[in-house]
Write a structure and sequence with these properties.
- This protein is of the alpha+beta class.
- The chain is built from 13 helices and 15 strands.
- Helix content is 34%, strand content 15%.
- The chain has a seven-stranded antiparallel sheet with strand order 5-4-15-14-13-12-11, sandwiched between helices.
- α3 (87-94) runs antiparallel to α13 (391-405) and α4 crosses α9.
């Protein structure tokens, strides 16, 4: 009897070790993000990475009123490619995992697909940047950070890197001039070096690169003059997060909980993916529940007021929409985003509705349209990383829903 128990325990441990080894391999070779595996991976990133939780509220949690309008799914619009499709069809094209539409703070449309559940979390990819950027903007408004100071003023370790003489404002608006490219379709792009540096698993014996996010940041060199032009680079966010955590002397996950998650009354724990040193991946490692993300978006739409209180300093939305500079925007890299701008790590449409959004690869978004009093959060697992693939149908879809809600 005892012998059989030992044999069974040995088999159990062996199976689990093998399963863990397979998970690690899938991260190292990137296969966990191949389609269709990505549809499940994005709903449980804790399977693949060490994480740090973002504590939700223990009391005074928000409650959304609901006024479902099934007609939203049938809204027809023309894509940028000239096709006529419905909003519901656009979700299928995006490989949406979850969608929620708020109008005047009420849920008017909500759907879940694939592996996402209402109480589940989803990787938000580069929407993570917006949380870091918003926190940075709050600290500037509170006088904790001086946007005219350089990153090395706060983090001496960045002296000698491209970030050393970049100002906090240049980090927030991604107008740094870096010898660094972020082309996901180019295997030689430095984004993959940054990703490899952040992988929490042991590096190959012949590996000579950085072994953590922050070690990599110190290796980035300057190319050009800071402040002249917007250039989207994930490393800006992680450099800003280093500044923020140094000044506040707290982990990023704790600060996001303190400034956002607990005040909005978040229902579910969010979390960050970590590198081997325990540092949060500020530029793309945030994971959260759909409704909690919608609550954050609604707080921003209301200029920081939500759940019965003023959570953020007033004037934040004005700063995003009015102080963003379209003249500095990278028009060549984003031909579909004509007239757009970037501010505090928010993408700003500069359209007549003053809409702005957070965006992440594979189809993530928090889209806010002030004129329509609308917030859309869409989580997805599109096979292609670039938003340029889904923008032709996603951007007109958001506007079509906004135009519909303006009549309500």
């Amino acid at each position: 009897m005892k012998k059989s128990i030992v044999i069974m325990m040995t088999m159990f441990i062996s199976v689990n070790i093998n399963a863990q080894t397979d998970l690690i391999k899938s991260v190292i070779d990137g296969s966990f993000f191949n389609f269709p595996q990505i549809r499940e991976s994005v709903c449980d990133m804790r399977m693949f990475f060490p994480t740090k939780g973002v504590r939700p509220a223990e009391y005074n949690r928000y409650e959304f009123k609901t006024k479902h309008d099934d007609a939203i799914g049938n809204i027809m619009f023309e894509t940028l490619n000239g096709e006529l499709i419905s909003f519901e069809e656009s979700l299928d094209l995006a490989k949406a995992d979850g969608i929620i539409v708020l109008h005047k703070g009420k849920i008017v449309y909500e759907r879940y697909f694939a592996f996402l559940e209402p109480d589940g979390t989803h990787a938000v990819m580069s929407v993570s940047k917006t949380f870091t950027g918003t926190l940075g903007a709050v600290l500037v408004a509170e006088g904790i950070l001086d946007e005219t100071k350089t990153a090395s003023y706060y983090v001496p370790e960045l002296t000698g890197s491209a970030f050393g003489n970049a100002t906090i404002r240049e980090l927030l608006d991604m107008t740094t001039a870096l010898d660094y490219d972020e082309n996901y379709n180019n295997p030689s792009s430095r984004i993959w070096e940054f990703s490899q540096a952040g992988t929490p698993y042991p590096k190959p014996e012949n590996y000579k690169g950085a072994k953590s996010y922050r070690e990599f940041l110190q290796s980035v060199k300057q190319k050009g003059v800071h402040g002249k032009k917007f250039a989207y680079r994930t490393v800006n966010t992680d450099a800003l997060a280093w500044v923020i955590t140094r000044v506040c002397d707290k982990p990023l996950a704790d600060l996001i909980s303190e400034y956002f998650w607990q005040p909005i009354g978040a229902h579910f724990e969010a979390y960050y993916q970590l590198d081997a040193t325990g540092t949060e991946f500020a530029g793309g490692g945030f994971n959260a529940a759909l409704r909690d993300l919608a609550a954050f978006g609604e707080m921003i739409r209301n200029d920081g007021f939500f759940n019965g209180k003023q959570i953020l300093p007033k004037g934040l939305v004005y700063d995003i929409t009015e102080n963003s500079n379209a003249n500095k925007f990278d028009k060549e890299s984003y031909p579909l985003l004509k007239g757009w701008a970037y501010r505090n790590m928010w993408w700003v449409t500069k359209n007549s509705d003053k809409a702005f959004c957070a965006r992440g690869v594979h189809g993530q978004t928090i889209f806010i349209n002030p004129k329509a009093e609308m917030v859309i959060v869409r989580l997805a697992s599109h096979p292609e990383a670039s938003n340029g693939v889904n923008d032709p149908f996603s951007l007109p879809a958001y506007q079509a829903v906004a135009d519909y809600l303006k009549t309500k």
